[in-house]
Specification:
Layout (H helix, E strand, L loop, with lengths): L4 E5 L3 E6 L15 H13 L8 E2 L8 E7 L2 H12 L4 E9 L6 E11 L4 E5 L10 E15 L2 E10 L6 H8 L23 E9 L6 E5 L12 H4 L1
Parallel strand pairs: 4-10
Antiparallel strand pairs: 1-2, 2-4, 3-4, 5-9, 5-10, 6-7, 6-8, 8-9, 10-11
C-alpha cells in the first residue's frame, strides 16, 4: 500500500501531499483515499492496536494534486476546523488554463449553486440573476507564465481562494472563458488533452492548533509535462 508524501508530522498534525487521482476519503468505488492510506501509515509507524484516529479537515477533488492537513486529535480537529470557518487558513492553487490574459492580475466575483441533477456548479454573474440559494464566491488570480500545449496557447495561474465552494475554481475560470486544461466537467477547451486536470493546491498555511505558530507548506511545480515548461517562471 502506497504512503503519500509526508511534509510535516507531530503529535497534533499530519500534513501530506495528495497525488492526483487519489480520493480525499473513501467512497463506494473502493479506490485509494488519503484518509485510509494515512491511517494505515500511523498504525504501522506507531504499532497501534486497531484503527488510528485521523481527522479529515478539508477535501480536494479526486483529480487534483495538493497539500492536505489532517488532525491527529479531536481537539486539534476542532481548532483547525474553526480556522477554516473563519477563513484564517491560507490556500493557493496553481492551474494551467486555456488562453492568454491581457492583465497580469484579476479577480472573479460571482454566485454559485450546485445543480443536483447534473452534479455540476452553475455560475451566475450577479445576485440579480442568481437563485436565492446561490452562494457568493470570490477568487483572485495572477498570471505566472504563458506557454503552449499541442500548439494551443495556455497560461499558468496562481489562484487565491477567498471562499471555499465546491468546484469553485474550475467553474469560475471556465465562466470567464479560461477553462482549466484537462477539466472534463467545465469545458474541454480547444483541444482534447488526455491527462489529469492541471490544477493543484500548492500552498497551505495555518496556525498550529497548540503553539499558534504560523506554519507554511508548499510543493514545487511538477517537473513533468506539461507543467515542466513553466518551471523557470517559479524560480
Amino acid at each position: 500500500m502506497m504512503t503519500p508524501k509526508i511534509l510535516f508530522e507531530d503529535n497534533h498534525l499530519l500534513v501530506a501531499v495528495k497525488p492526483a487521482g487519489v480520493l480525499s476519503q473513501s467512497d463506494a468505488s473502493g479506490a485509494p483515499d488519503m484518509l485510509t492510506l494515512l491511517k494505515a501509515y500511523l498504525v504501522e509507524k506507531y504499532h497501534k492496536p486497531g484503527e488510528a484516529y485521523l481527522g479529515l479537515l478539508h477535501r480536494l477533488d479526486r483529480p487534483v494534486r495538493g497539500v492536505m492537513v489532517f488532525a491527529k486529535t479531536s481537539k486539534c480537529a476542532s481548532r483547525v476546523s474553526e480556522q477554516i470557518r473563519n477563513r484564517t487558513i491560507g490556500k493557493r492553487y496553481r492551474a494551467i488554463v486555456y488562453g492568454a490574459f491581457d492583465e497580469e492580475k484579476g479577480e472573479i466575483r460571482s454566485f454559485l449553486r450546485k445543480n443536483s441533477k447534473t452534479n455540476l456548479v452553475d455560475v451566475y454573474p450577479d445576485r440579480v440573476s442568481a437563485p436565492k440559494d446561490a452562494k457568493e464566491c470570490f477568487l483572485e488570480y495572477e498570471v505566472l507564465g504563458q506557454g503552449k500545449i499541442a500548439g494551443v496557447p495556455v497560461s499558468l495561474l496562481a489562484v487565491d481562494l477567498h471562499t471555499g465552494r465546491s468546484h469553485q475554481i474550475r467553474a469560475q475560470l471556465s465562466s470567464i472563458g479560461h477553462p482549466i486544461v484537462g477539466d472534463r466537467k467545465y469545458g474541454r477547451g480547444p483541444n482534447r488533452f488526455a491527462g489529469d486536470i492541471l490544477l493543484e493546491s500548492f500552498h497551505l498555511e495555518l496556525d498550529h492548533p497548540v503553539s499558534a505558530e504560523r506554519m507554511v507548506f508548499e510543493i514545487p511545480i511538477s517537473d513533468e509535462e506539461p507543467w515542466k515548461q513553466f518551471i523557470k517562471n517559479e524560480e
